[in-house]
Specification:
elongated; about 75% helix; 4 domains; mainly alpha; about 0% strand
């Protein structure tokens, strides 16, 4: 489905999970540290409280969780992680998801309670009652905490029976796409019916007196949504989950007491084991002393004849033995003190292992960052070479442009000279135009005066009387011109 689970996963265990745990080592160790910080553990029955989340936030774990998760997500389009401790710590992690603005979906795994009880009995030697209560707390807490979120409920047994259908349902609910080749590989290489150690039906829970009725009720109700026949988002399940949460809340004082009693029992067993080791050491010392006494008895029987002479020596030896007994008592006290010191050193070594894990994660993150910087430097070197080549090409272009500019300057100089000559010519023509305009105005004035004189003459009586005589004079003086004149007048009239 394209979901990345990280590249630092917990190794497989042939006796427990031969196919692998598929849990991120860094997140797993961080969750262990979170539970330890609020005096809890994965197998404790009581849930963590809001004040525990506030305590974790004040101790800086929220900042560390944000950095760790952002580092793990990185550039992955979809990232997922699995850890049973997440159910107890989900109030804390949901604050982290909200702060990082991640789009979160949940896959809720459902397994038959008897299968869970068998597994915990075999691996951790838990009492069956405790295993049922662990199943109850994990299931109710996961359902209540993810209410209103995008989630899908998956039954382990159904997944083993029909992986295509169940994985298709998961992909559909979470808007993911199944890669056919990877699905084929998953079924061939990962799913193994031989690793499924138990097969139980719902009614089998009735046969186990240690199983609470609430466990039977919840498992029976969740079978339908896990098979896809109904949805856990239906209103009826909202009411059921609210009822189950109330039931778990009523059990909380008993769960807290059970955790305290279990812790007390565990501590008592640990102390008894330490006492057994101490008693074994003392038994060895007693055996050695018994042998010494037996040797002395043998010598006493052999030296009966010398009893009187050696009496004082025996008294001295008795006092020496008493001194040795006192010394043995001191050595026993020193042994106990060194045992306590060894316990302290063991805890210090565990703390150093956690720090080494954190440093290893930081080292890996820095290695990735150095690789990114190396790639960035290589990209910059390529860009610099490209810029150098472009710079050289532009230098040649600038040289060409400089030559063209010089040539254009020469052309402009020539054009400027021609322009100056033309401007001079234009000035001369302008002056000539002004002179001719003044001459035309003078002629126009003279023409107006002549027209006025002609009009005056034409309007005078003498001009009209002498008109025939002037016409006769023209005919006599130049008859050819008169003929042409009259011909022109007739042509203009009849056009």
């Amino acid at each position: 489905m394209g979901v990345s689970l990280g590249d630092r996963l917990t190794p497989s265990n042939e006796e427990v999970n031969a196919k692998g745990f598929w849990e991120d080592i860094d997140i797993n160790l961080f969750n262990v540290e979170l539970l330890s910080a609020v005096n809890s553990d994965w197998h404790h029955l009581a849930p963590i409280l809001p004040r525990d989340v506030d305590q974790l936030r004040k101790q800086g774990y929220m900042t560390r969780a944000t950095g760790l998760l952002r580092q793990k997500v990185g550039k992955n389009a979809v990232f997922g992680f699995k850890d049973p401790r997440l159910v107890k710590l989900i109030p804390f992690w949901q604050d982290v998801f909200t702060h990082c603005a991640f789009d979160v979906s949940y896959v809720l795994a459902l397994r038959h309670p008897l299968s869970v009880v068998d597994s915990l009995t075999k691996r951790d030697t838990f009492q069956r009652e405790k295993s049922y209560l662990l199943w109850l707390g994990h299931v109710i807490s996961s359902l209540a905490a993810t209410d209103g979120c995008r989630r899908v409920l998956v039954d382990y047994d159904l997944l083993m029976q029909d992986p295509d259908r169940e994985l298709g349902r998961v992909a559909s609910c979470l808007d993911l796409k199944i890669e056919v080749a990877e699905l084929r590989r998953y079924k061939a290489e990962f799913l193994d019916a031989g690793l499924r150690h138990s097969h139980y039906a719902l009614n089998d829970l009735v046969l186990d007196d240690a199983c609470p009725r609430l466990v039977q009720e919840i498992y029976g109700a969740l079978l339908a949504p896990s098979e896809g026949r109904t949805s856990i988002e239906d209103e009826i399940f909202d009411n059921l989950i609210a009822h189950w949460v109330e039931e778990l809340e009523r059990l909380k004082p008993s769960l807290v007491l059970a955790d305290k009693l279990l812790e007390f029992g565990t501590a008592s067993v640990r102390k008894l084991a330490e006492r057994d080791v101490e008693m074994a050491e003392r038994d060895k010392s007693i055996v050695a002393l018994d042998k010494a006494v037996a040797d002395r008895d043998s010598r006493l029987f052999g030296l009966a004849a010398d009893w009187a002479a050696r009496g004082l020596r025996i008294s001295e030896l008795d006092r020496a033995i008493s001194d040795r007994d006192v010394q043995l008592g001191g050595l026993a006290a020193d042994w106990a003190a060194r045992g306590l010191r060894i316990s302290e050193l063991d805890r210090a070594i565990s703390d150093r292992d956690v720090q080494i894990g954190d440093l290893a994660a930081d080292w890996e993150a820095r290695g990735l960052r150095i690789s990114e910087l190396d790639r960035a430097i290589s990209d910059r070197d390529v860009q610099i070479r490209d810029l150098a080549a472009d710079w050289e090409a532009r230098g040649m272009r600038i040289s060409q442009l400089d030559a063209e500019v010089v040539e254009r300057d020469i052309q402009l100089s020539k054009q400027s000279q021609v322009l100056s000559e033309r401007e001079c010519r234009i000035v001369e023509l302008f002056d000539e135009t002004n002179r001719r305009s003044d001459w035309a105005l003078g002629l126009e004035r003279e023409l107006v005066q002549a027209n006025n004189q002609l009009a005056n003459m034409a309007s005078s009586t003498s001009w009209r009387i002498t008109l025939p005589l002037r016409e006769l004079r023209r005919w006599l003086k130049n008859p050819v011109s008169q003929v042409q004149r009259y011909r022109g007048m007739l042509e203009r009239r009849f056009r």
